[in-house]
Specification:
Chains A, B: Keywords: Cytoplasm, Decarboxylase, Lyase, Porphyrin biosynthesis. The structure is a homodimer. By secondary structure, chain A is an alpha/beta fold. The first copy, chain A, is 46% helix and 12% strand. The radius of gyration of chain A is 19 Å and the shape is globular.
Chain lengths: 340, 340
């Protein structure tokens, strides 16, 4: 088998490969003991930017679970750090920025950085190591979408409802569009660097888009997510949480080859909303990873059955692997999906 | 004017009073300097359970903003504390339980407490003080819905996605139903105590229900929320965040006189989903409270215009008042709504 025949890439192209591809958001990281061991004494962003380490962390779950893709181990704020923005990941809290971006002057300052100047060499090196090890298994590149990045930047850190970013759209739309437009270019440069180094596909994560109304999503967000992906030279997966009310809009006018569905919306409903010409990804309920295997198995079989209504289906969770997950459960899911 | 002619109560009955009623979730509390002054040196749950203090905090925003209802100042965990469960509110974090309820044995232990034994005398006393001060302005009683209470209890504190409660439903449905059934009785007893002391209506808050699929909501949550409200002897408002995908189910088979709508779904869409025989409440985008007045004013006028499609409309926010809100903005909204 060659890389281009890989089930994930065939599914993204709209084919139905013999084996249904499966991978897990956050498969690399917190749920694996070998990851926790490797990370001792290393700060999150340092781990992301140390090529050997980022490569090894990316490879761990592929070896352990036999998933159909690696997902590049990174953090949503890595491209901002590479662009020179001062940010740190605080354990148990998340990304914290030295200077939140709240005023027109803040926006002007940060957007004066040229996105093309972003030095992604450490990331490219890590990707090259991963790709040479993975062989015929594809690597998925990773970036945060402009809204989700802005939600952190405007707030200055994690927040429950991303109120400040949602406010900026309406109080100063010009600054909002300038900031989101710049973030789109940062994401695009970061994704393309991963593709140029060998990633076979990319996923854009808009984790917090579900805090928006559809109207705000369409006016203030979708154009920038589209810009982040427009010239990217690999198949695209677009994922958000709680985006059921505007799931069809997550196709971004057809730019997305696959749309990720969270655990809230049944795949049959998602497929009818998305239409026949896009691949669906999802949507095992992460809460069920702690359930006894027969309960989880029945659920996975149901997700698979529902996915048959799509042109193609990539099995995944409806959101990331919870940190306390028993990795054995993930391996069992992969075996089950591959056995059907 | 007598209390029974109050715009809020007429709107709940399906009439269109001359003045559109308006109040704000979390109007009592963090956004008011007079509240912050009053609270210095008093822990949250002590404030809730000191009748004079809880009454004064409830009254502050009615005096300041001229809203059409008081909302009883309390916390979602107050009835649990009154039932003897060990819980404290940690400033900046939220409710934290000494012993999370995770196993069948935990559930058996907590549900052995008789909900009827809950001593609500301090709450009843506070309600009586408020009601005598409010005169013809109605007081809305307050309680958390069984799922939202369970989300805190099972986790042991606040959580982003309420994974443990969502898991318990599937891993041990019997324990789940036992726990949620017990919480429903706790909420019912707490609401009825407020009504018996003079509250004119009640609102059940299911703040976290939006983390559920519709199927899980219908099977594991709706029956218990219905039980919490079934014998309650006052008009009912039912509110959840992110419940757009099952908004019609929030009517609980017609038990709810009004359904609250969050900021994500336009009221016109909510009204068409809910049907003609229920009052709608909402749904000013809280993020716009920090916008310049002309931006906020246009938005409030739009919400009012959309609300005209319902049998009756109670103006509110789509979620609680953010702590950093300038109270002047709230007063301006009340004046605007009353002037139209």
């Amino acid at each position: 088998m060659s890389l281009s025949d890989a089930p994930l890439l065939r599914a993204l192209a709209g084919d139905r490969p013999d084996r249904t591809p499966v991978w897990f958001m956050r498969q690399a990281g917190r749920s694996l003991p070998e990851y926790r061991e490797l990370r001792v004494g290393t700060r999150m962003l340092d781990a992301c930017l140390t090529p050997d380490l980022a490569a090894e962390i990316t490879l761990q779950p592929v070896r352990r679970h036999g998933v159909d893709a690696g997902i590049f181990f990174s953090d949503i704020v890595v491209p901002l750090r590479l662009a020179g923005v001062e940010v740190e990941i605080e354990p148990g809290r998340g990304p914290v920025f030295a200077e939140p971006i709240r005023t027109a002057a803040d926006v002007e300052r940060i957007t004066s950085i040229d996105p093309e100047s972003l030095d992604a060499s450490a990331v490219a090196e890590a990707v090259r190591i991963v790709v040479s090890e993975l062989g015929e298994t594809p690597l998925i590149g990773f970036a945060g979408a402009p809204f989700t990045l802005a939600a952190y930047l405007v707030e200055g850190g994690p927040s429950k409802e991303h109120m400040r970013a949602r406010a900026l759209m309406h109080t100063d739309p010009e600054s909002w569009h300038r900031l989101a437009g710049w973030l789109a270019q940062v994401s695009r440069v970061f994704l393309q660097a991963q593709i140029d180094a060998g990633a076979s596909a990319v996923q854009l994560f808009d984790s917090w888009a579900g805090s928006l109304s559809r109207a705000d999503y369409l006016e203030f967000v979708a154009p920038h997510s589209t810009a982040a992906l427009r010239d990217v030279t690999a198949p695209i997966i677009h994922f958000g949480v709680g985006t059921g009310p505007f799931l069809a809009d997550m196709r971004l006018g057809g730019i997305a080859d696959a749309v990720g569905v969270d655990w809230r919306m049944p795949l049959t409903e998602a497929i009818s909303v998305l239409g026949p010409d896009v691949t669906v990804q999802g949507n095992i309920n992460p809460a069920l990873l702690s359930a006894p295997w027969p309960v989880l198995e029945a659920h996975v079989r149901d997700v698979l059955a529902q996915g048959r209504g799509a042109r193609a289906h990539i099995v995944n969770l409806g959101h990331g692997v919870p940190p306390e997950t028993d990795p054995e459960q993930l391996t069992r899911i992969v075996e089950l999906v591959h056995s059907i």
